[in-house]
């Protein structure tokens, strides 16, 4: 189905470094549909909830502090296979292991400053979209879709 949706975010480092436009442009140019977009400054509690799966990890406190250190840009992207494709377009968690051409491989170096987030499964996407877009997203038709999908 073409209607799959995922949650992607530009982390505080991406906002500070002025990379938001570049990140959005990659998904737009590929042909995916932006259906939700907003800036949010996460509280520590929101950061803890977002990364709840990692709460036992030694790096969790630092991760929460970083994620709540400034505004992030929350996005909902829609399209065929977007959950998996989105992860591939981000690159590896470790920027040094990310290929050139991926967002992390092109724009970042350190693990704790890897500039972007993407849901890693359909279950995570559903959970994260509910958390960051409780108001819902925009259902609309994109006129170019017949030039992107056959
Ligand atoms: P991803 O962001 O690729 O989904 P993740 O969910 O495993 O990766 O971890 C969330 C973030 O936590 C990751 O983007 C950077 C940070 N992180 C992950 N593993 C880490 C580690 N071993 N040391 C420090 N920070 C780490
Ligand atoms: Mg993750």
Description:
By secondary structure, the chain is an alpha+beta fold. Helices cover 38% and strands 16% of the residues. Strands 2-3-1-4 form a four-stranded antiparallel beta sheet. α3 crosses α4. The longest helix is centred in the first third of the chain and has 11 residues, at 20-30. The chain binds 2'-deoxyadenosine-5'-diphosphate and magnesium ion. 2'-deoxyadenosine-5'-diphosphate binds next to loops.
The number of helical segments is 7
CA distance, first residue to last residue = 12 Å
Give the uncertain stretches in residue-range form. none
Strand content: 15-25%
C-alpha Rg (nearest Å): 15 Å
Summing up helix and strand content along with how strands pair, one would put the structural category as alpha+beta
Attached small molecules:
2'-deoxyadenosine-5'-diphosphate, magnesium ion
What is the overall pLDDT average?
A: 97
Report the strand count: 4
Report the helical percentage. 25-40%
Strand order of the largest sheet: 2-3-1-4
Q: Please describe the biggest sheet, giving its number of strands, its sense, and whether it closes into a barrel.
A: 4 strands, antiparallel
